[in-house]
Design a protein that fits this description.
The protein is α+β, with helices and mostly antiparallel strands and about 375 residues long. Helix content is about 20%, strand content about 25%. The strands form 4 sheets. Strands 1, 3, 5, 8, 11, 13, 14 and 15 form an 8-stranded mixed β-sheet that branches. It has helices at about 220-235, 240-245, 255-300, 350, 370-379, and strands at about 15-20, 30-35, 40-45, 55-65, 70-80, 95-100, 105-110, 115, 120-125, 130, 140, 145-155, 165-175, 185, 190-195, 360, 365. The protein contains 5 helices and 17 strands. The protein has a domain at about 10-235: Spermadhesin, CUB domain (Jelly Rolls).
């Protein structure tokens, strides 16, 4: 029967990892990151191992998830020997869970061993289903830390013992989630949540309140399947209509390229706007500085005052300078009589008569300068 997928955002199998414990290397710690999904661990001794390696077997897994998440462990089926020869030790083979800080183990759970039957699904009278588990304790929850150590110990195989078998499911759980959360759904009878895809997927991911009664995430799956079919029968909008009404719909990743293109276009528009804005501001500042410089030069210029000289023709005023013509002003100084006017200086011949200079046989060799001769005459 095909599992019923209750989730609306993907296949549950895509979030589940499978590990064969027989492939574990004894003495080594194997780190596994479950993210927000689940993991199934299986040990089946019917898969014969090399007889040369028929020794005590200890496998150590360190499971990790994201911060503020934990782990839910459900033992689907187990047949491990509980006939220990050590006093006070009931388990000869066992699985155990632990918590550590750095390299120091701070907590160890009880050891799980013995026979735990496989759970079966039974149909209730009202048409719903319930998942019923077997006997003994089969559940462990780690909600304090986002890391959990898983130890699996198998003693040396004996020819007379029954082949040992183990199958357990580890599910990542989240503390609290809203009812309209698109990714997580709250488990019944608890505040912990698991992925929506894990409801009605054929695996036990929620064992609250009683692990012996099976998984509460696998109850009423027929009713949920009917609701799912009713929803699928409703008329759905086409992709084009959905893109027009809800361009940023988060139902999938189909709109991611459109969003990327819109972001690129918006970024390019902002860059172009900034470049042109910078150029406009630079041009405006230059024009403003030029206007201020012109006004400063015009304010520093003084108006020229010119006077019309006699005999000079009229001159046309220019735009930059205003020509102011003033009338001739009379000379206020007193007039001198003609007798007081200065006389003309003596001539050169009259001056050198008294200072002829150096004579040679009565003839002057080098006549003295006019200024020197005039000075000697005045003395």
């Amino acid at each position: 029967m095909r599992p019923i997928k209750a989730g609306h955002r993907g296949n549950a199998d895509s979030y589940v990892q499978h590990y064969n414990i027989m492939d574990c290397k004894p003495g080594e710690k194997i780190e596994l990151d479950l993210k927000t999904g689940a993991a199934i661990f299986v040990y089946n001794e019917t898969q014969k191992r090399n007889p040369l390696y028929n020794t005590d077997f200890m496998c150590h897994y360190e499971l990790e998830t994201v911060a503020q998440f934990g782990f839910h462990v459900y033992i689907d089926e187990m047949y491990l020997s509980d006939e220990s020869n050590l006093p006070g030790e009931p388990c000869k083979d066992f699985i155990q869970f632990a918590r550590d800080r750095v390299f120091v183990t701070t907590f160890r759970s009880q050891k799980y061993c013995g026979h735990v039957s496989k759970g079966v699904t039974k149909h209730l009278p009202n048409g719903s289903t319930a998942y019923t588990g077997g006997q003994r304790s089969r559940m462990y929850v780690e909600k304090r830390d986002s890391e959990m150590d898983l130890f699996i110990y198998m003693s040396k195989r004996q020819l007379t013992t029954r082949p040992r078998y183990l199958r357990l499911t580890v599910t990542v759980i989240k503390e609290n989630c809203a009812s309209n959360n698109l990714f997580y759904r709250k488990c019944p009878h608890t505040s912990h949540c698991i992925r929506r895809e894990f409801f009605c997927d054929g695996r036990v991911n929620c064992a609250w309140p009683n692990a012996e009664e099976g998984g509460t995430d696998e109850v009423n799956c027929d009713a949920e399947a009917q609701n799912r079919r009713n929803i699928e029968r409703k008329p759905q909008t086409t992709n084009a209509e959905s893109a027009i009404r809800y361009p940023f719909n988060t139902e999938g990743a189909a709109n991611i390229p459109l969003v990327i293109v819109m972001i690129v276009i918006a970024t390019a528009f902002i860059v172009v706007l900034m470049v042109f804005g910078k150029k406009f501001v630079s041009f405006f500042c230059k024009a403003n500085d030029l206007n201020r410089s012109t006004r400063s030069d015009s304010n520093n210029e003084l108006p020229a005052r010119t006077r019309r000289s006699p005999g000079a023709g009229p001159s046309a005023p220019t735009r930059s300078e205003a020509t102011v013509l003033l009338p001739d002003e009379p000379d206020s100084s007193p007039a001198r009589p003609p007798s007081e006017l200065p006389s003309a200086p003596p001539s050169y011949e009259d001056v050198i008569k008294d200072n002829p200079g150096v004579l040679s046989r009565g003839v002057p060799m080098a006549p003295p300068p006019y200024s020197e001769s005039l000075t000697m005459t005045q003395v």
